[in-house]
Amino acid sequence: MLGAAGCRDARPRATAFPVPGQDGPRVTVEVLNASGKPGLARSGVRVLRQAGIDVVAFGNAPATVGILDSTRIVMRRPAAGASDRIRRALGVGRVVVRADSTRLLDASVLLGADFAPRLKFHP
Fold first, then answer.
1. How far, CA to CA in Å, does 75 sit from each of 36, 59, 103, 111?
2. Residue 2: pLDDT over 70
3. 37 or 2, greater pLDDT
4. DSSP states of 30-57 as a string?
5. DSSP conformational letter for 82
6. The 54-60 sheet, strands edge to edge
7. Could you tell me which of 62, 69, 67 has the C-alpha nearest to residue 108?
8. Residues 82, 75: contact at Cβ < 8 Å?
9. Neighbours of 101 (CB within 10 A)
10. Distance in angstroms (rounded) separating the CA atoms of residues 122 and 33
11. How confident is the model at residue 67 (pLDDT cuts 50, 70, 90)?
12. Rounded distance between C-alpha atoms, residue 87 and residue 97, angstroms
């Protein structure tokens, strides 16, 4: 009697996107659209997740931020190399340090009008 156990493929499967923390320490961010262009936060999420960065929240920036011409990466807690990874993934951004121990993330990304996503789509 043959069992179905022999049919299972034991080889590890490649993932379409990197797993957060796979290529170094895990980096957690929130992505906020401060550009005035609808839908830009969702594009920013895709770009960062393709780079293996863990996006825990996204949406529009508060009205008090206003419309930004350039993207800001606001570091909330020290994480070695995190700002470089985020900036490299986005292709733009000025890094600002504003420590905030009440937020449970490494950085807030405020997408400005200069952000033009270069997305890789899965067929």
1. 22, 18, 11, 14
2. no
3. 37
4. EEEE-SS-TTHHHHHHHHHHHTT-EEEE
5. H
6. 54-60, 28-33, 107-111, 72-75, 94-97
7. 62
8. yes
9. 7
10. 24
11. very high
12. 14
Helices (H) and strands (E) in the chain, counts: 2, 5
Least confident segment among 10-19, 35-44, 91-100, 107-116 = 10-19
Q: pTM of the entire structure?
A: 0.78
- Coil/strand/helix, residue 69: coil
Using CA atoms of 39, 40, 45, 51 in order, give the dihedral in degrees to the nearest 10: 140
pLDDT of residue 30: 97
Helical axes 40-50 vs 82-90, angle rounded to 10°: 120
Name residue, tokens 């796979």: 22
Q: In this structure, is the dihedral angle defined by the CA atoms of residues 17, 21, 25 and 26, taken in order, positive or negative?
A: positive
> For the chain, how are helix, strand and coil distributed in percent, rounded to 5?
20, 20, 60
- Structural domains in the chain, sorted by start: 24-111 (3.30.70.2390)
What is the rounded average pLDDT for all residues in the chain?
Answer: 85
